[in-house]
Design brief:
Radius of gyration of chain A: 25 Å
Strand content of chain B: under 5%
Structural class of chain B: mainly alpha
Low-confidence stretches of chain B: none
Mean pLDDT of chain A: 88
Largest interface: A-B, 28 and 21 residues
Radius of gyration of chain B: 23 Å
Oligomer: heterodimer
Number of strands of chain B: 0
Shape of chain A: elongated
Number of domains of chain B: 1
Low-confidence stretches of chain A: none
Helix content of chain A: 25-40%
Distance between the termini of chain B: 35 Å
Number of helices of chain A: 9
Order of helices and strands of chain A: EEEHEEHEHHHEHEHEEHHEEEEEEEEEE
Largest sheet of chain A: 6 strands, mixed
CATH architecture of the largest domain in chain A: 3-Layer(aba) Sandwich
CATH superfamily of the largest domain in chain A: P-loop containing nucleotide triphosphate hydrolases
Strand content of chain A: 35-45%
CATH class of the largest domain in chain A: Alpha Beta
Largest sheet of chain B: none
């Protein structure tokens, strides 16, 4: 079932949380709503579910305009950030809730709950109370509960944020497999770009209540539409400067880069991906002179913090893979960006 | 012997003070009561508590208290709900007014209620004149007075629990297709049940012993509208101390039995849930 929102506007008192948001999600797609906190992504999810009423605009589920429909009639599966399990009901009854309120016969309830227990790998846990489960298990109960009535769309609000790192990774991979299996149209909210990229078919990046860019993870990475997108995806450093003629010059004037033809003169940011910067020996003929300040290793990735040029501009470089002859703090080197994007501003 | 470490010091001292106060304020008076009643032989005691006038009074007291507690449960839940969930003009005033039955001398409440429900009072006039319902000087009047003094117990035990309810549970239920009534019965009420039972039990316990607000409205006809606490006072005024304490002990036994039964039911429900797992 496809989902479409058209020109949604929403205020919380004076705060304009959604600004003319339009988005179409195709049937069976898994889409991430990504953005910093307060950017409106959760509110959009709640508008689609009907938990918030938009000030303006429409929500369509397939060919139905559900803009004014109460939550109960929309049949969406919603997984809350903190799961919102019914603590007085055991796992079985939590999952069965949607069927119980629809007064389905006991045999059907039992069959459906059994099927879901198997799907979320919680067979044997049906008589546990939520308090007796781990975070990851609760998450899976919440998911099974949301799927019980075969919703048209599954909405997940920061589904992994309440879990610890390892569980989060496992569940992510598991959710992707689950989605490929059940093929329910699925939207999830996250502020973690890694999570969005790993899971989603398409990513919707929010900024201040508006959609900044929509695309596959690859598109967002290769063709970011703004400095904000690039920066939010991470591992990027933005340097302030100005374009004059064929040259970009940093604010302190110490660093220069050639710019593509036709770039307008004026204040411009140069965006460097940390792993797109080459570290050269001090005697190299090209590159900016720099001094190593600090090294920070995280597994296969070595982050080198440098001071560049006479103005000692801080710059970070990431070396991936083998770095046998790693520089030491205090070493003089040269650095040169292989790839730079320029953003007017 | 290693005692489990407690971050708060002075367990021994504080426990001692607690037990001393508990002893002085609760145990000693009750022991005196029992020892006084113990002057009677079993048969004498039985004779007193099976006296038709006593039986009627005890039955009226317990019955009216039970009715009042149930009325308090329903009204208190509604009142607490409105006070917690809605913002309206005068909410603060309404919230403060809930405590009035605690603060008001019970005799004042009794006189006010009597004036209101007496056959020539504002409400009594209407109820009796048009509906033929006798409230003051009849059991309904007693129940009303008892419900008045017990209401704050229910409201004040429910309020913090209602405030702490996770609204997301209700939203989750609605997303799953529950109607407002289903949300209330299946999601909200189960979370409130322990507090509701506690508040109702306290209202009941208070009502069993209530005297001041009832004597004016009850009419005090022996065997018909005479409550047990009044009977005790009557016996005291007649210098029948032993008779008074016998009834008091009987009331104590019955009230304790009810409280224990409620506690047992609640504990059983809790373990029933746990045993599920």
């Amino acid at each position: 079932m496809s989902i479409e929102v058209k020109n949604i506007d929403k205020h919380f008192d004076a705060f304009h949380v959604l600004r003319d948001v339009s988005l179409r999600v195709e049937s069976g797609e898994l889409v991430a709503l990504l953005g910093p906190s307060g950017s409106g992504k959760t509110t959009l999810l709640r508008v689609i579910a009907g938990l918030e009423r938009q000030d303006r605009g429409q929500v369509w589920h397939h060919d139905d305009n559900v803009s004014g429909q109460p939550v109960r009639e929309r049949n969406v599966g919603f997984v809350f950030q903190h799961f919102a399990l019914f603590s007085h009901l055991d796992v079985f009854e939590n999952i069965a809730f949607a069927l119980r309120v629809r007064k389905r016969p006991q045999a059907e309830v039992r069959a459906r709950v059994d099927e879901l227990l198997r799907l979320v790998q919680l067979h044997g846990y049906e008589h546990r109370l939520p308090a007796q489960l781990s975070g990851g298990q609760r998450q899976r109960v919440a998911l099974a509960r949301a799927l019980a009535a075969r919703p048209k769309v599954l909405l997940l609000d920061e589904p992994f944020s309440a879990l610890d790192a390892q569980v989060r990774k496992d569940l992510r991979a598991w959710l992707r497999r689950l989605h490929d299996e059940v093929r329910t149209t699925c939207l999830f909210v996250t502020h973690d770009q890694e999570e969005a990229f790993e899971l989603a078919d398409r990513v919707v990046l929010f900024r201040d209540g508006a959609i900044e860019q929509v695309g596959t993870p690859d598109q967002l990475y290769r063709e970011p539409s703004s400095a904000f997108v690039m920066k939010f995806l991470g591992h990027v450093q933005l340097l302030d400067g100005d374009v004059a003629g064929e040259q970009w010059r940093s604010r302190d004037g110490a660093l220069q880069l050639p710019v593509p033809h036709g770039l307008a003169a004026g204040p411009t940011q140069a965006a460097l991906r940390l792993h797109d910067v080459d570290l050269l020996p001090a005697g190299a003929s090209e590159g900016w002179p720099a001094q190593v300040e600090r090294l920070h290793s995280s597994g296969p990735r070595l982050t080198v913090t440098l001071r560049v040029g006479p103005g000692a501009l801080p710059l970070r470089v990431e070396l991936v893979g083998e770095h046998g002859a790693a520089p030491q703090p205090g070493d003089h080197v040269r650095v040169w960006p292989r790839q730079v994007r320029f953003w007017a501003g | 012997m290693a005692r489990p470490h407690n971050p708060l010091p002075g367990l021994g001292l504080s426990l001692g003070i607690t037990l001393a106060w508990l002893g002085l304020l609760v145990v000693v008076p009750l022991a005196a009561l029992v020892s006084k009643a113990a002057q009677l032989s079993g048969q004498q005691w039985l004779a007193i508590i099976t006296d038709p006038r006593v039986v009627a009074a005890v039955r009226l007291s317990l019955g009216a208290a039970a009715v009042a507690a149930l009325v308090d449960a329903a009204l208190g839940l509604l009142l607490a709900w409105v006070l917690v969930r809605y913002r309206f003009v005068g909410r603060g005033l309404a919230d403060a007014a809930v405590d009035l039955p605690f603060a008001l001398p019970t005799a004042v409440a009794g006189i006010a209620l009597t004036a209101l429900y007496a056959p020539d009072g504002w409400l009594g006039h209407i109820l009796q004149g048009y509906l033929g319902l006798k409230v003051a000087f009849a059991p309904p009047g007693i129940a009303i007075a008892l419900a008045f003094v017990g209401l704050p117990f229910v409201v004040r035990t429910l309020q913090p629990v209602l405030q702490g309810l996770d609204r997301e549970l209700e939203q989750a239920a609605v997303c799953l297709g529950a109607t407002p009534a289903q949300v209330f019965w299946r999601v909200i009420l189960p979370q409130l049940r322990p507090a509701l039972v506690t508040g109702t039990t306290m209202a009941f316990a208070r009502a069993v012993g209530e005297y001041g607000s009832v004597v004016f409205i009850s009419g005090n006809l022996p065997g018909q509208t005479e409550i047990a606490p009044l009977l005790i006072v009557t016996k005291l005024e007649a210098y029948d101390y032993v008779g008074a304490t016998a009834i008091a002990c009987w009331l104590l036994v019955l009230a304790t039995a009810v409280l224990l039964a409620v506690g047992w039911l609640q504990a059983r429900q809790k373990t029933a849930w746990q045993a599920h797992g």
